[in-house]
DNA sequence: TCAAAAGTGTTATCCTTACACCCATGT
DNA sequence: ACATGGGTGTAAGGATAACACTTTTGA
């Protein structure tokens, strides 16, 4: 390796998630002067921070004023062509992280530094199926994708599957099922089809003939929306085999609150009773003995997470059934 | 960021896996002059390669003479303290990859470049439960870990769990179950306990009082064994929900061969008939009509992977039952 | 005829899904 | 009393795990 090789910089970026009521929220920073919203992030400097995670926590603290809590690495993105580097600027590689926090812990702090929480479905409106199939799919998204998939593939890269097949795999068209975990695949397909703002910004031509460009979810800075898509996908998958949901809950909660939180993340409706049995037979929670009367109807029993489960079984979670 | 910040280099490292008979094999390169075995790897240069994957494939080709096939990113490791950088040398961050190939494709090529396939359980003898609980656990490993866990935790980092609890979670001690997916957790625990060679090399003191240091699996260069542990863990987990196993199979195979391959990877024994029913009901394979008589007994029917399943269901795999 | 490996049938059990119904509070 | 949300019982269907047994080849 000669010493003139392109300078590389590592960017640490965090998708910080909390749930407020029945809305999943994302912590986004610095939308002040700039039009586009971005995630908390900063470069990794090994002199200052021994590990990525330490560096990440420092950046989050500095930019939002709060501690990140549960943190997990998602993926490392390094494509040239996304985030085109200015001449002489270093090539930036982003390591995406997912962080989970509890809403009450934080509310005020963040705002004081210019950061705030926003509902994450603003960035991915087609991912929220809690009130049935989202309209945007049939009015806008699928027609545009169908147009794209009808055109011949002019791709640089060799692809094992045709555009049609890939569309069928990601989106519910012609009877193919909805898989709530394929959040990233869907975003990547939209990017490739030139249907999200980020793709145009990165110099990809719009693939459709529409005069007015439809807004498919709110765009974000750099590759941050891609990282958020990765975060949602990972979280939706992980819910089912690890008790991560409790990282988002207060110390005590009702079963309905727990269910609403799971529904918020997974973007779909669950069967009340089966959900309760599931939680019960997995012995994930225990009653505190108290009740909450804040919800208007019959008072609900309060529960807390049984931390012991972490040591008992190999890996409990909530494999959710349908409806 | 000032321009004097530590130079960062990105290392791409691949754990390339194939199965030969009933043995899972790992492609390791350049063990010639150096004592320690290493994985194919090299630095990422964004000027030369547009994506990590392209760069990785180039390095693998150059160092082993073969094409990597199925490739998937595993994790990015950046700890200072592992791989201590020489003074003035760049800080190296490694992105680990998992690659799967078919044995027949390759055999000869690799050898001609000094690379070769080795059984992966040489590096992790405690991970192979196909012939029952491995002896090394009770003769060596668990006694040493028990000694370590009895000592008070002198850790720098704040840990939510005690040493005892972490031991119980990773290893089968005192009735706790064996979870074949926790390959990385087990390796990390051994590293932290100073029981693998890599830990001592990185300047971690041996935590036990034994005079003779027992050899707990063959060590590898740099952090390559950690990457291999990540690869095995990922592959064992992924088997169960994606049909990746077929990346390791020839175009046509018998059901017993398929079962032996799954057993090789997962490191445990499966119930023959249940395995067959599983494969059948998942409709993952179809008979070719031919038979194979190479195994000595009654001729076995040959099957091939039904590629169509990739498009039908969201995500088929082989959730293996026990025994 | 015997060893070796392929391939099949059947049952008990558990988990998932879905149905419909009762309970406790505020207004 | 009634609306609102909390909370339960139970039965049908399917997937799993574990039995032991038959079939087809080569030596």
Short description, anyone?
Two copies of one chain form a homodimer. Chain A has three domains: 8-122, Nucleoside Triphosphate Pyrophosphohydrolase, CATH 3.90.79.10; 133-217, no CATH class; 248-312, Winged helix-like DNA-binding domain superfamily/Winged helix DNA-binding domain (Arc Repressor Mutant, subunit A), CATH 1.10.10.10.
Characterize the structure shown:
- Two copies of one chain form a homodimer.
- Chain A has 323 residues and is α+β, with helices and mostly antiparallel strands.
- In chain A, a hairpin with a 2-residue loop joins β1 and β2.
- Chain A is 31% helix and 19% strand.
- The termini of chain A are far apart.
- In chain A, α5 runs antiparallel to α7.
- Chain A is built from ten helices and nine strands.
- The first copy, chain A, is globular, with a radius of gyration of 21 Å.
- Chain A folds into three domains: 115 residues, Nucleoside Triphosphate Pyrophosphohydrolase, CATH 3.90.79; 85 residues, no CATH class; 65 residues, Arc Repressor Mutant, subunit A (Orthogonal Bundle).
- The model of chain A has no long low-confidence stretch (mean pLDDT 85).
- In chain A, the strands form two sheets. In chain A, strands 1, 2, 3, 4, 5 and 6 form a six-stranded mixed beta sheet that branches.
- Chain A binds a DNA duplex (27 and 27 nucleotides) through α9.
């Amino acid at each position: 390796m000669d010493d003139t090789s392109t300078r590389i910089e590592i960017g640490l970026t965090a998708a910080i998630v909390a749930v407020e009521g029945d809305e999943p929220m994302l912590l986004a920073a610095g939308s002040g002067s700039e039009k586009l919203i971005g995630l908390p992030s900063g470069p990794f400097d090994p002199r200052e921070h021994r590990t990525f995670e330490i560096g990440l926590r420092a950046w989050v603290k500095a930019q939002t004023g709060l501690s990140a809590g549960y943190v997990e690495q998602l993926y490392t993105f390094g494509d040239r062509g996304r985030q085109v580097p200015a001449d002489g600027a270093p090539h930036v590689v982003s390591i995406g992280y997912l962080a989970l926090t509890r809403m009450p812990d934080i509310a005020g702090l963040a705002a004081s530094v210019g950061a705030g929480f926003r509902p994450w479905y603003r960035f991915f409106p087609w991912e929220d199926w809690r009130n049935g199939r989202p309209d945007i799919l049939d009015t806008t998204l699928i027609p545009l994708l169908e147009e794209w998939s009808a055109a011949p593939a002019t791709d640089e890269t060799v692809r094992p599957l045709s555009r049609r097949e890939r569309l069928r795999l990601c989106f519910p068209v012609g009877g193919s099922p909805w898989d709530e975990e394929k959040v990233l695949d869907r975003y990547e397909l939209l990017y490739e089809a030139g249907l999200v703002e980020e793709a145009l910004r990165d110099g990809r031509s719009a693939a459709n003939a529409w005069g007015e460009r439809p807004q498919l979810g709110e765009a974000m800075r750099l590759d941050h929306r891609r990282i958020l898509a990765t975060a949602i996908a990972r979280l939706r998958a992980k819910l089912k085999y690890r008790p991560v949901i409790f990282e988002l809950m207060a110390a005590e909660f009702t079963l309905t609150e727990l269910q609403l939180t799971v529904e918020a993340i997974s973007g779909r409706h669950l069967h009340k009773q089966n959900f309760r049995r599931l939680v019960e037979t997995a012995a994930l929670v225990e009653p505190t003995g108290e009740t909450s009367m804040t919800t208007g109807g019959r008072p609900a029993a309060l529960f807390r997470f049984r931390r012991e489960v972490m040591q008992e079984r190999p890996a409990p979670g909530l494999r959710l059934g349908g409806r």
